[in-house]
Amino acid sequence: MLTTLIWDVDGTLADTERDGHRVAFNQAFQEAGLDWDWSEELYGELLQVTGGKERIKFYLERYRPDFQQADLMALIAQLHQRKTHFYVELLATGAIPLRTGVKRLLQEVRTQGLRLAIATTTTSENVTSLLKATLGEDAVDWFECIAAGDVVPRKKPAPDIYEYVLAQMGVTPAECIALEDSSNGLRSALAAGLKVVMTLNSYTQNDSTERASLVVDHLGESDQPVQVFKGDLRGQTYVQLDVLQKL
Ligand code: XBP
Ligand code: MG
Questions:
Q1: Which helix (H) or strand (E) holds 195?
Q2: pTM of the predicted model, to two decimals?
Q3: Does the beta carbon of 121 sit less than 6 angstroms from any atom of ligand 1?
Q4: What's the pLDDT score for residue 100?
Q5: What is the pLDDT of residues 46-57, one digit of tens each?
Q6: CA–centroid distance for 37 within its chain
Q7: Distance (Å, rounded) from C-alpha 220 to C-alpha 237?
Q8: Among 12, 13, 18, 21, which residue has the most ligand 1 atoms within 8 Å of its CB, making it the best to mutate?
Q9: CA distance 3 to 131
């Protein structure tokens, strides 16, 4: 029996990457006097690396191999801290909405008494800021466990963050479903033994969906039907809880 929905954040709850994280990274680089500027296209490539600090390091290794810095990890940490500041500031303006159907499904899950959790690679304060900006101050309490960022040593696609949530909630993989947008997220959840529903977005539309139970373009609404890439909506036009219960 399905008891728990575990949500990814970036790309799943909201389309945060292109107009959110990417912009904030660039603001941090600019403030530090660095001429690094991540285009939308480049950022799509950098997204293969999860975690902002890890992503900056990967960028330097691949695109700025000659960049010299005595304490590189300290610089990356400092840049990332400023990036988080800019990102949170942006979220507070309400610039980034939830994806279609997210609020509706969250409400349906709450009404039916199922449990909610979050398993994300992003920084914890980004999650609480997004939830507050889009769902209100008390939305943080809707989630029994918000597992984020550096709380585990290995980020997605490793299973650590999902395993952490399962342990914190005291639930088995069989009673949970993960909602994800990317192949890194999918691999992470699968490796933890979970069933996965994927809502693809423009950055992840060509990602592998192998072994996902259901793959759609978004969760949909009664007046906004979803496109089903894989799986069965059982005659429904948008993703409702009873479809998830039968996966
Ligand atoms: C997405 C990520 C994060 C964000 C940036 O996480 O990989 O790194 O892109 O956030 P998920 P930080 O899809 O698991 O929510 O800079 O805070 O890492
Ligand atoms: Mg994601």
A1: strand 195-199
A2: 0.97
A3: yes
A4: 98
A5: 999 999 999 999
A6: 23
A7: 8
A8: 21
A9: 22
How many angstroms does the Cα of residue 115 sit away from the middle of ligand 1? Answer: 23
Supply the pLDDT for residue 39: 98
Q: What pLDDT score was predicted for residue 18?
A: 98
Average pLDDT (93-106) is 98
Taking each helix axis from N to C end, the angle separating 72-92 and 22-31, rounded to the nearest 10 degrees, works out to 120
Outline where the chain has alpha helix (H): 22-31, 40-46, 52-63, 72-92, 102-111, 124-135, 160-169, 183-191, 241-245
Q: What average pLDDT score do residues 151-177 get?
A: 98
Q: Check pocket membership of 120 for ligand 1, CB cut-off 6 A.
A: yes
Most ligand 1 atoms within 8 A of CB, residue of 27, 81, 118, 121 to mutate: 121
Per-residue pLDDT tens for 17-27? 999 999 999 99
Q: Is 199 a pocket residue for ligand 1 (Cβ < 6 Å)?
A: no
Q: In whole angstroms, how far apart are CA 138 and each of 13, 37, 73, 172? A: 17, 36, 35, 27
- Compute and round to an integer the Cα radius of gyration of the chain: 18
Nearest-angstrom CA–CA distance, 66 and 25: 20
